[in-house]
Amino acid sequence: MLTDLLRTTRARTLALAAPLSNEDAQLQSMPDASPAKWHLAHTSWFFEALVLQPHLPGYCVFDERWPRLFNSYYESLGPRHARPQRGLLSRPSLDEVKGYRRHVDAALADLLPFASDAARALIELGCHHEQQHQELLLTDILHAFSCNPLLPAYQPQRPEPARAPAQAWLKHPGGVIDIGHTGAGFAFDNEGPRHRVLLEAFEISNRLVTCGEYADFVAAGGYREPLLWLSDGWATVQAQGWQRPLYWQQDGSVFGLHGVQALDPDAPVTQLSFYEACAFAEWAGARLPTEFEWEAASILPGFEQAADPAWGAWQWTRSDYAPYPGFKPAAGAVGEYNGKFMVGQQVLRGGSLATPAGHARPSYRNFFPPAARWQFSGLRLAR
């Protein structure tokens, strides 16, 4: 039920922020990341601006000064504080932001019993939007902690490692394939309209590339061989001094949500850019799948997302993030959610260890710029 989805989603966000100190929640380590406090406030602003103000008669905005602070990129909803400066917002305090969340939660509880279908659809969208920010909260605080010489753990207890299955190639015959959301259950607008694509026969790996396999690429000089890299990728490697995945340490250990740990050769490699994924695939004599190949193959027997959900990774595809045939953004502010970002980005499929349970699905289209490497992003090979 929608009431349960809203309750559990809002509670989980607070639970994810619970291990953080007030100082932790204030950190912004780069322009692409946001402080945990901002995520807590922005997800409440989303409900306030898109659900409560237009659909709850008599609703009073919590603080008329705050929309400017917590609007992300919705031009139609007013001016915004600059994204790279979100870490400068020491006020409002974390306690005040939590009070904002309680105010919005109480108003949503008032609205739900008589909410129209349109309002209920927006509440459902708001829940899935907040789930996206739950993953971003974790990836952003991990990046912030990686900048601390102490390399603190977000959560010291680490799940038991799972063994990766033996690598195998799964065959797909190709043909005319239906792609996109089927219409049952929730989906973001960028997952449709459902349409047909023509695929040539292909093979795809049953599992993700592991840390052990990627370590072989590093040891073989993969970051020093320009012929393996796309031109923009090689320029980025040189400019940024990349030598290994983002959180791999010089001593062979890996930094993550559970602090510094020994590299697990069976775990999927993560924190890779699209450029790094392409270079590895070239080195391995393979390629990245297109997003359509990935979706078509996801129903094949033996297609593993990961040996264990706690070790999953989003998988870069060779597909540009572009609208499907017949795609039209929704009217109003909601239309700014996805459509205007359909340029200069690559599609990722799957889901990661930080993705909330039940959030992703085979038609789900994540997207990031090709140089982004602070997400739990890895790869699966195709040929």
List keywords for this structure.
alpha+beta, paralog of FGE (formylglycine-generating enzyme), 2 domains, two-stranded antiparallel ribbon, 34% helix, 11% strand
Structural commentary:
With 383 residues, the protein is an alpha+beta fold. It folds into 2 domains: 2-146, Up-down Bundle (Four Helix Bundle (Hemerythrin (Met), subunit A)); 169-378, Alpha-Beta Complex (paralog of FGE (formylglycine-generating enzyme)), CATH 3.90.1580. Helix content is 34%, strand content 11%. It is built from 10 helices and 10 strands. It is globular and about 65 Å long. The two termini are 42 Å apart.
Helix-strand sequence: HHHHHHEEEEHHEEHHEEEE
CATH superfamily of the largest domain: paralog of FGE (formylglycine-generating enzyme)
Amino- and carboxy-terminal Cα gap: 42 Å
Q: What's the alpha carbon Rg, rounded to whole Å?
A: 21 Å
Query: Which architecture name of the largest domain does CATH use?
Result: Alpha-Beta Complex
Physical arrangement of strands within the biggest beta sheet:
9-8-7-10
In one word, what is the shape? globular
**What's the main sheet like?**
4 strands, mixed
